[in-house]
Amino acid sequence: MSPASRTAAEPEVAALLAEIAAGAAERERDDVSPFEQVAAVARAGLGALSLPADEGGRGASVREVLAFVVDLAEADPIVAHVLRTHYSQVLGFLRQPDPEVRRRWVEEIRAGKVFGNAISETGPSAAGGHEFDTRLDEVDGRLVLNGTKYYSTGTLYADWIAVAARVPEDRVATVMVPADRAGVDVVDDWDGMGQGRTGTGTTRFTDVAVEPGDVLGARPRLEPRAPGDVAFLQLYLHALVAGILRSVATDAAGVVRSRSRTFEHAPVPQAVDDPILQETVGRLSATAWIAESAVLTAADAIDAVMQAWAKGEPTEELLLAASLAHVSVKVHLDRVGPEAATGLFDVGGASASSRARNLDRHWRNIRTITLHNPASYKAAAIGRHLISGDPLPVNGYF
Fold first, then answer.
1. Tens digits of residue pLDDT in 159-168
2. Which of 23, 120, 179, 224 is the 20 to 30 Å CA partner of 347?
3. What is the largest CA-CA distance in the chain?
4. Where are the alpha helices (DSSP H) in the chain?
5. Does the pTM exceed 0.70?
6. Residue 252: CB partners within 8 Å, gap ≥ 6?
7. How far is it, in rounded angstroms, from Cα 392 to Cα 390?
8. What single string gives the DSSP state of each residue in 209-248?
9. If we measure between CA atoms, which residue out of 241, 157, 148, 149 comes closest to residue 199?
């Protein structure tokens, strides 16, 4: 039995997930963007999971949010990945110290608005670092945003875009920009072998007018992000992998059931009775269960950080524990995830490679997600910490 979310157990949510799942393989095979499916999640109020119940949400913890993400990724990992920045941004709004600012954005969340991101830049600076060429300047008494961002996952589907931009005194501001504002150009140019319709493309800002109230604040450029933010964003990726692994196990069982013949030298005449195939399916199911359990256990560690932060209590030791947890999950899943997606083909004959079945999407999606940052560097960071007591790196990947 899977450690599934209580949200998915609700009949209306279960029906929505089933509807999203019904066309997921075909959408991906035919390169169709899931605009309607993302909108359906928002209309159902599922983008507001983290909001307190008295503010129109469900008061969901990090564990509960990521449990739902696993469910959604099982249905369609493209839709789930699109909403990664959205769920992170919602958590940020809930920490907003200004009650009026908080109220404004909570209203947008309740209204079903979707938030995307424009954070990453390319160039000579290191990935995950603190260098930004995008700037927010005051020109003739008004704020103007200029710059180019890459890997803007979800922005193609967003109503609002969260942008990281340099401001004077070597600070970085978080700026909220309507996706349809003049000067905003969202380019659908992501051509990855997996997660192909996540809108992970280029976003350009050319003399975009910014309202003062849309600037959420600024921090010193080298100052770490708020406790738990990075851990949540990174663990979210592993929740996607856990959901995909569920689909791997389900599809493997389906392939075995669908086989009308087997090999002459197989141990039994019917594939469904073949102990070799049964073992393979069992191992794939076990891998999916362990992956999900690991993600949810790491989510508990992030919840502990956020709860301590909200109470004004120290978070350093808790943050280290959360970082080690999500990093460890990645190091493990990056190895067993692609292996399981490959193992899916071991239960079928040559017909399992049919493009019509599109079973290779699981491997392509998992492998693309794992490339977000190398597990080798993270494993080495864990080793240095355990051997020599070196601190973990402080950047967007830890």
1. 999 999 999 9
2. 23
3. 80
4. 6-9, 11-22, 24-29, 35-43, 62-75, 77-82, 84-94, 99-110, 229-258, 275-310, 316-343, 360-370, 375-388
5. yes
6. 280, 281, 284, 343, 344, 347
7. 7
8. EE-GGGEEEEEETTSPPSTTHHHHHHHHHHHHHHHHHHHH
9. 157
